[in-house]
Amino acid sequence: MSKVLVVFGSRHGGTRGIAERIGEVLRTGGLDTVVTAAELAGHEEVRTADAFVVGSGVYMGNWLSEALDFLRRNQEQLAARPTWLFSSGPLPGSSKEEREADPVTNALGPLDGPGSGGRKKLEEISARVRPRDHRVFLGAFDPDDPPRGMSERLVRMMPVAKSILPTGDFRDWDAIEAWAREIAAAVPSPVPAG
Ligand SMILES: Cc1cc2nc3c(=O)[nH]c(=O)nc-3n(C[C@H](O)[C@H](O)[C@H](O)COP(=O)(O)O)c2cc1C
Questions:
Q1: Quick one: which atom of ligand 1 is closest to the CA of 11?
Q2: Can you list the alpha helix ranges (DSSP code H) found in the chain?
Q3: pLDDT at 194
Q4: In the chain, fewer beta carbons within 10 Å around the N or the C end?
Q5: Mean pLDDT across 66-73
Q6: Quick check: CB of 12 below 6 Å from ligand 1?
Q7: pLDDT at residue 94, as a whole number
């Protein structure tokens, strides 16, 4: 049975929920699937995986550092196996939303110029990992969940916070499950030993 490692970076649990749902669909599709936080992913789990799904919540145009670090420290294994990436971010109705922009730009910002730093970091590592796909899913924001870290605290104190951070759980489970089914169909069978 092929083994898939689903790895997530999540500050408030939204991305963890997406990773867990992807894991359920992959298991239903007959794959031996482990879902783990990026900072807890062990060497042995990485070494024995036949495919990877890696995702992160997006904060101010950046993947969370633990998810980026996972990609960096395992880039050779990821490049040698089928790998899928996902970002969980956009909150529909945000004043930062650009209707004309493609989903990756909407979540992570432009490829160049002001605000491109987080996108560039991910593009740089993606060029080495060569993922099969990078999908963007809508996220979730609960203002009652206290901020984690100084930068999030500052953003949430800004007067524009209300317009850039619409409240609600916008995760599109149908889209997430459909993507996971595509992955389940594309994961190759393990090569028999010997
Ligand atoms: C302070 C703050 C900044 C955010 N910045 C972005 C952003 O730049 N791009 C984006 O697509 N989503 C952004 N979001 C939305 C989050 O990515 C979304 O809430 C996501 O579901 C969070 O995932 P998590 O719960 O796994 O941490 C931001 C949310 C907060 C609270």
A1: 27
A2: 14-28, 43-48, 65-73, 75-79, 103-108, 117-129, 150-157, 161-164, 173-186
A3: 67
A4: C
A5: 98
A6: yes
A7: 87
∠ CA(20), CA(137), CA(101), 5° rounding? 165
Q: For 35-45, what is the mean pLDDT? A: 97
Give dist(CA 156, CA 161) in Å, integer: 5
Whose alpha carbon is nearest atom 2 of ligand 1? 59
- Please state, in angstroms and rounded to a whole number, the distance separating the CA atoms of residues 118 and 122: 7
Ligand 1 close to Cβ of residue 152 (< 6 A): yes
Q: Check pocket membership of 60 for ligand 1, CB cut-off 6 A.
A: yes
| Three-state secondary structure string covering 100-156 | CCCHHHHHHCCCCCCCCHHHHHHHHHHHHHCCCEEEEEECEECCCCCCCCHHHHHHH
Any ligand 1 atom below 6 A from CB of 82: no
CA of 89 to the centre of ligand 1 (A): 5
pTM of the model: 0.96
Residues with Cβ < 8 Å from 163, sequence gap 6 or more? 94, 95
Is the beta carbon of 15 within 6 A of some atom in ligand 1? yes
